[in-house]
Amino acid sequence: MRIDGLSLDFFRNYVHLDAAFDPNINVIYGDNAQGKTNLLEAVAYLSGVSHRARYDRELIQFGVDHAFLKGHVFARERDFLLEAELHRGARRVLRSNGVKLKNGGELSGIFQSVLFCPEDLYLIREGAAARRGFLDDCICQLRPRYAQALAEYKRLHEHKTRILRDSEEKPSLLDALDEFSMSMAKAGALLIHYRAHFIKRLCQAAPAIHGDFSGGRERLTLHYETVSTVTDPEAWPQVIFQQLLQHQEEHLGPVKVIFSELLEHQERHRQAEIASRQCLSGPHKDDLLVDIDGSPAKTYASQGQTRTAALSLKLAAREIFQQDTGEYPVLLLDDVLSELDPRRQEFVLNRIRGGQVFITCCEDDRLPQLLGGRIFHVKNGTVR
After folding, report:
1. Which fold has domain 129-328?
2. Lowest-confidence range among 73-77, 244-248, 343-347, 358-362?
3. Helical (H) or strand (E) element with 123
4. For strand 287-292 and strand 220-225, is the pairing parallel, antiparallel, or unpaired?
5. I need a labelling partner for 384 at 20 to 30 A (CA). Which of 114, 148, 225, 363 fits?
6. Has domain 1-112+330-384 been given CATH number 3.40.50.300?
């Protein structure tokens, strides 16, 4: 899997770009704030992933109403022309070989990427949302059904939160609460099932990579934390669904009125949810717990350990992609070597062999001489 060429118009700080890439190593160097990360972001966008922008309009150059991306991709022994048109105030348009696509998930079904950037330190240091985002980005690229369930769950969660938020002024809204809880449980069961299986594979791959990274001096462990009544997250979604219903009956109010003796208990927790105006249970609370040598990395890891753990997760995801698709995803490494000691830097450079790689560095970095491949100099949104 690779991207052979990229064209950009009015994307971030690129007025226009036409670039052809090496099938193996591409080194992008230049000063800070010149557009190196923007170039990686464009490649990632064509794989259905946007790591920095919440809204597409943020990707469009200031003072312009639209942006265009075009990538020549080789995947699954075929050539693809992937296109994205971004517009202010209108829905984006995605195409593959001229055929309009329904969503970014269809891009991911063709072309996959794994990105590491400085913000990925949040994977370890920040709250659970960052780690859920990592899981979602990975699984959405591998499992279209997961992407559909995730979109549906987010829609239901937003509606249910709105009901809870507005119910004080409009109590009749609570009549729909149980229906939304039921639908969220159905979609949520799929999310938990897929997350559990992906994390199981991460648990097999990431500790070995981290152990090599640290020279065997550190031990990385991962644990999936989800709804407490889900006794087997790897079970079939139908089983998880029943366990989610049980949890909602205990904490959110009656999804089904089954036992009269539970009514008082259910109502008490229902009122707690209404009072907090939040959905208190479900996979939107999931977390991927990361420990180093038995201690929470979020609290105790050093800067170098944090970077190593985050990079180990990303490289493990790359291995899983290769196992599932038979091809390495395109690896995008943004400022990956800063704050790593020389031995860990050497490990990274050796580990990324195989598949197409994009890696950014500063003007005075020695990467272009070490890695070879094709070298691009970025300055003020232009590439030479």
Report:
1. Glutathione S-transferase Yfyf (Class Pi); Chain A, domain 2 (1.20.1050)
2. 244-248
3. helix 122-125
4. antiparallel
5. 114
6. yes
- Sequence-distant (≥ 6) Cβ neighbours of residue 245 within 8 angstroms: 182, 185, 255, 256
User: Is it the case that residue 233 has pLDDT exceeding 50?
Assistant: yes
Intrachain domains 1-112+330-384 and 129-328 with the same fold: no
Q: What is the pTM of this model?
A: 0.83
Whose structure tokens read 């469009």? 60
Residue 152, C-beta contacts closer than 8 angstroms, at least 6 positions apart? 183, 187
Could you give the CA distance from residue 180 to residue 161 in angstroms, rounded to a whole number?
A: 10
* 99's tokens: 């055929």
221-244 in b/e form (b: 16+ CB < 10 A) is ebebebbebbeebbbebeebbebb
167 — pLDDT class (breaks 50, 70, 90) = confident
Q: Would you list the domain boundaries of the chain?
A: 1-112+330-384, 129-328
CA distance 42 to 257: 51
341: left (phi over 0), alpha (psi -120 to 50) or beta: beta
Secondary structure (3-state) at 77: coil
Please give the backbone phi and psi of residue 168, each rounded to the nearest 5 degrees, phi first. Answer: -65, -40
